[in-house]
């Protein structure tokens, strides 16, 4: 209790000191002590003595007044110390609490750090384990990649195909052993080097050209190249393709090369075989046709004599068999042309009605030989002019009509001709219908196959070679037409030919005093033949064209009304002088005029010395000299009553036109033929030119100088016909010197030829435009 009271008074005093300071707290305490002393003294004396005296009270108060300041000072000091001690203790306690809290925080943080370090240590162990696993897997992957790389490299190096890679700068960055063997250079000579440092000088232009093509088009290309390997020339089919990154940017070029030497050799052997086969067919046809023509001629003469009925029957059989054999020869020759893709279609402006009349006359004669009725049916407007190949179309109809007569023993053969107007233009439909043995339905799909002969009713193969209908189909397709067959066995057959009609105007005819001539033109260059045919037909003459010497000899034998032979001196199978000798060997043709066509008249006259010919015309044909020749041989002269055409203004020619073109020949042709026919001739040269260039290139690669010279001769004649003087002179050099130079020189000539043709055609088009404006 005392402690509690003391504590209470101590707190009161302490509060007074804090609130009022030492002085005022002492005053208050002093006054309080005096009052308390007074109260206590009164209470004490009252209780103890029963009374309260002033002296007693004052003595107590005085004692209190004297002792209180000291006690209060001590008490105040003590309180001060106690407060200081308390504050210190409170401060110490607070600091201890703070320290404890800090220590707890540090302990917690340390514990957290320990936990984190434990986790980091565990993570480190896991990371190390994963790293070790990754290292192990990477090592394994590197080993597998190295093995795959070695395997791939082994495969690439062991491949018979060559391979190389060049970066975007054209520097070699990779290759295989085959390429190293082909080029004959080591790694140090290949890696990091350019095309100019690796390939030979003769190969660099071609390599760079194909590289540029790949880079520009971003497409792969294939090209055949020739490399010398182990002292032997080997051919490779190179495939070049661009190497593109993910952004579509060109970063290099890949090239693969497959050895195709054996294939090239096979192709060359096949080409040689084709040429040998062509020569063999031409020789065989010539050797067989000569005695056959004798059989036909003598049989024809024998039929004109007095014979018994049996003898006449025998002679007719011989004559028919010989003619059939001759037709088989023609089919064989056409078959060879089809096989070599050299079947040409030469269209001309013909009157369709007149052409049909000629076919009717022929068909009626062969039908009459078997006592068959021949019918002709026409529908639609046929009295028109159209661009057709009369020779090939006549051959198609001859084959079909001859077959119809051959397989018809009684009844009739009918020729139906119709003009049909369709959505895509006019068409000519020709049908050959017979009442013969017919064709079994299961054989009709094969009737146009090569060498196929449908069996007859007895099961035996039909008579013939089995190539006539195959050739017929090829001719119809070459004329952009179609052919179909329908037949009932025992009731007859029907062959339908449909051809598109390209209508045109009638050919310009000049009035000549004299008769029209039937002329055989022997010329192996289609362009020369077309121009010569135009010149002659515009003068009112009929022309038949023979492309080879064999065709010419055959036509001489079979065409009875020939008035003149225009004979080219250099042909692919037989030279002109040999043809002339064979014609003159038959006395039946003693009166048939022969005029040589040649680029060198003096040389031709020397070759034909001792042979009866009636003259020579230089190629390209000059219209004035042609008219003079016709006038000398047949008295045919151009009529003098033609109105003089108005004089045109003189042409203003550029220096390029004067240097590259034979302007006199061109203007002569245009004035004679007209501008449109000459344009068609120029277009024909443009179509033939790539063929000539390809044949020259192949002949040079195969080192076939004979073919090289022969094609150069054809090109020379074709260029001269359209007035390309510079090209003609260049082709003449190739022809005359081609056998004396190497393949490199001939290849250089080909490069020059391409440039000269391009320049010449540009100048020619310019001159044609001027002539058209001036006409």
UniProtKB/TrEMBL annotation:
<dbReference type="InterPro" id="IPR008207">
    <property type="entry name" value="Sig_transdc_His_kin_Hpt_dom"/>
</dbReference>
<dbReference type="InterPro" id="IPR014409">
    <property type="entry name" value="Sig_transdc_His_kin_hyb_ArcB"/>
</dbReference>
<feature type="coiled-coil region">
    <location>
        <begin position="93"/>
        <end position="148"/>
    </location>
</feature>
<feature type="transmembrane region" description="Helical">
    <location>
        <begin position="27"/>
        <end position="48"/>
    </location>
</feature>
<keyword id="KW-1133">Transmembrane helix</keyword>
<dbReference type="InterPro" id="IPR013656">
    <property type="entry name" value="PAS_4"/>
</dbReference>
<dbReference type="Pfam" id="PF02518">
    <property type="entry name" value="HATPase_c"/>
</dbReference>
<keyword id="KW-0597">Phosphoprotein</keyword>
<dbReference type="InterPro" id="IPR003594">
    <property type="entry name" value="HATPase_dom"/>
</dbReference>
<dbReference type="GO" id="GO:0009927">
    <property type="term" value="F:histidine phosphotransfer kinase activity"/>
</dbReference>
<dbReference type="InterPro" id="IPR000700">
    <property type="entry name" value="PAS-assoc_C"/>
</dbReference>
<keyword id="KW-1003">Cell membrane</keyword>
<dbReference type="InterPro" id="IPR000014">
    <property type="entry name" value="PAS"/>
</dbReference>
<dbReference type="InterPro" id="IPR011006">
    <property type="entry name" value="CheY-like_superfamily"/>
</dbReference>
<dbReference type="Pfam" id="PF00512">
    <property type="entry name" value="HisKA"/>
</dbReference>
<feature type="domain" description="HPt">
    <location>
        <begin position="674"/>
        <end position="767"/>
    </location>
</feature>
<feature type="modified residue" description="4-aspartylphosphate">
    <location>
        <position position="568"/>
    </location>
</feature>
<feature type="domain" description="PAC">
    <location>
        <begin position="219"/>
        <end position="272"/>
    </location>
</feature>
<dbReference type="InterPro" id="IPR036097">
    <property type="entry name" value="HisK_dim/P_sf"/>
</dbReference>
<keyword id="KW-0418">Kinase</keyword>
<feature type="domain" description="Histidine kinase">
    <location>
        <begin position="283"/>
        <end position="503"/>
    </location>
</feature>
<keyword id="KW-0812">Transmembrane</keyword>
<dbReference type="InterPro" id="IPR036890">
    <property type="entry name" value="HATPase_C_sf"/>
</dbReference>
<keyword id="KW-0805">Transcription regulation</keyword>
<keyword id="KW-0902">Two-component regulatory system</keyword>
<keyword id="KW-0472">Membrane</keyword>
<keyword id="KW-0175">Coiled coil</keyword>
<feature type="modified residue" description="Phosphohistidine">
    <location>
        <position position="713"/>
    </location>
</feature>
<dbReference type="InterPro" id="IPR004358">
    <property type="entry name" value="Sig_transdc_His_kin-like_C"/>
</dbReference>
<dbReference type="GO" id="GO:0000155">
    <property type="term" value="F:phosphorelay sensor kinase activity"/>
</dbReference>
<feature type="domain" description="Response regulatory">
    <location>
        <begin position="518"/>
        <end position="634"/>
    </location>
</feature>
<dbReference type="InterPro" id="IPR005467">
    <property type="entry name" value="His_kinase_dom"/>
</dbReference>
<dbReference type="Pfam" id="PF01627">
    <property type="entry name" value="Hpt"/>
</dbReference>
<dbReference type="InterPro" id="IPR036641">
    <property type="entry name" value="HPT_dom_sf"/>
</dbReference>
<feature type="domain" description="PAS">
    <location>
        <begin position="148"/>
        <end position="218"/>
    </location>
</feature>
<keyword id="KW-0808">Transferase</keyword>
<feature type="modified residue" description="Phosphohistidine; by autocatalysis">
    <location>
        <position position="286"/>
    </location>
</feature>
<feature type="transmembrane region" description="Helical">
    <location>
        <begin position="54"/>
        <end position="78"/>
    </location>
</feature>
<dbReference type="Pfam" id="PF00072">
    <property type="entry name" value="Response_reg"/>
</dbReference>
<keyword id="KW-0997">Cell inner membrane</keyword>
<keyword id="KW-0067">ATP-binding</keyword>
<keyword id="KW-0804">Transcription</keyword>
């Amino acid at each position: 209790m005392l402690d509690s009271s003391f504590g209470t008074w101590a707190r009161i005093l302490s509060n007074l000191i804090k609130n009022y300071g030492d002085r005022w707290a002492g005053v208050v305490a002093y006054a309080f002590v005096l009052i308390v002393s007074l109260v206590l003294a009164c209470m004490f004396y009252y209780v103890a003595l029963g009374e309260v005296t002033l002296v007693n009270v004052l003595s107590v108060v005085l004692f209190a007044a004297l002792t209180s300041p000291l006690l209060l000072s001590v008490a105040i000091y003590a309180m001060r110390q106690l407060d200081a001690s308390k504050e210190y203790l409170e401060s110490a306690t607070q600091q201890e609490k703070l320290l404890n809290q800090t220590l707890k925080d540090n302990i917690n943080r340390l514990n957290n750090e320990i936990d984190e370090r434990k986790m980091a240590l565990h993570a480190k162990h896991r990371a190390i384990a994963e790293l070790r696993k990754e290292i192990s897997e990477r090592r394994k992957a590197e080993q597998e990649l190295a093995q795959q790389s070695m395997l791939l490299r082994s495969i690439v190096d062991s491949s018979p195909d060559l391979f190389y890679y060049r970066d975007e700068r054209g520097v070699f960055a990779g290759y295989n052993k085959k390429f190293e063997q082909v080029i004959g250079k080591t790694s140090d000579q290949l890696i990091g080097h350019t095309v100019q440092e690796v390939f030979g000088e003769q190969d660099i232009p071609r390599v760079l050209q194909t590289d540029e093509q790949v880079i520009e088009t971003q497409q792969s290309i294939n090209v055949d190249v020739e490399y010398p390997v182990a002292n032997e020339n080997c051919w490779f089919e190179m495939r070049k393709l661009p190497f593109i990154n993910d952004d579509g940017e060109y970063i290099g070029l890949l090239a693969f090369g497959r050895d195709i030497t054996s294939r090239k050799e096979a192709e060359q052997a096949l080409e040689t075989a084709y040429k040998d086969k062509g020569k063999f067919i031409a020789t065989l046809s010539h050797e067989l046709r000569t005695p056959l023509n004798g059989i036909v001629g003598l049989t024809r003469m024998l039929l004109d004599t007095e014979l018994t009925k049996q003898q006449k029957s025998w002679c007719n059989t011989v004559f028919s068999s010989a003619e059939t054999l001759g037709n088989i020869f023609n089919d064989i020759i056409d078959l060879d042309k089809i096989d070599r893709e050299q079947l040409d279609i030469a269209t001309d402006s013909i009157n369709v009605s007149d052409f049909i009349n000629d076919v009717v006359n022929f068909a009626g004669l062969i039908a009459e030989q078997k006592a068959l009725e021949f019918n002709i049916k026409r529908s639609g407007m046929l009295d028109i002019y159209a661009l057709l190949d009369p020779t090939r179309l006549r051959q198609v109809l001859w084959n079909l009509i001859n077959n119809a007569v051959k397989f018809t023993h009684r009844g009739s053969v009918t020729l139906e001709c119709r003009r049909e107007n369709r959505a895509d233009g006019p068409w000519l439909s020709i049908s050959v219908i017979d009442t013969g043995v017919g064709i079994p339905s299961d054989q009709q799909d094969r009737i146009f196959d090569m060498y196929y002969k449908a069996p007859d009713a007895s099961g035996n193969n039909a008579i013939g070679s089995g190539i006539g209908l195959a050739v017929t189909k090829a001719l119809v397709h070459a004329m952009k037409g179609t052919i179909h067959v329908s037949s009932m066995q025992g009731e007859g057959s029907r062959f339908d030919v449909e051809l598109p009609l390209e209508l045109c105007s009638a050919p310009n005819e000049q009035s000549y005093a004299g008769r029209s001539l039937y002329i055989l033109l022997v010329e192996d260059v289609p362009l020369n033949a077309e121009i010569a045919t135009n010149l002659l037909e515009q003068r009112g003459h009929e022309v038949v064209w023979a492309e080879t010497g064999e065709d010419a000899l055959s036509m001489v034998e079979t065409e009875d009304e020939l008035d003149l032979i225009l004979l080219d001196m250099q042909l692919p199978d037989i030279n002109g002088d040999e043809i002339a000798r064979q014609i003159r060997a038959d006395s039946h043709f003693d009166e048939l005029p022969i005029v040589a066509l040649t680029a060198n008249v003096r040389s031709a006259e020397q070759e034909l010395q001792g042979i009866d010919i009636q003259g020579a015309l230089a190629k390209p044909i000059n219209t004035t000299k042609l008219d003079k020749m016709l006038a000398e041989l047949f008295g045919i002269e151009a009529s003098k009553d033609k109105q003089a055409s108005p004089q045109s203004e003189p042409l203003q020619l550029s220096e390029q036109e004067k240097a590259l073109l034979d302007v006199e020949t061109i203007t002569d042709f245009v004035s004679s033929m007209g501008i449109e026919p000459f344009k068609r001739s120029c277009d024909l040269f443009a179509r033939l030119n790539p063929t000539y260039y390809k044949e020259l290139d192949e002949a040079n690669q195969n080192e076939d100088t004979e073919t090289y010279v022969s094609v150069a001769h054809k090109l020379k004649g074709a260029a001269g016909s359209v007035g390309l003087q510079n090209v003609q002179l260049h082709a003449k050099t190739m022809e005359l010197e081609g056998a004396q130079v190497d393949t490199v020189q001939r290849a250089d000539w080909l490069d020059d030829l391409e440039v000269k043709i391009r320049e010449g055609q540009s100048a020619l088009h310019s001159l044609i435009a001027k002539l058209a404006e001036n006409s």
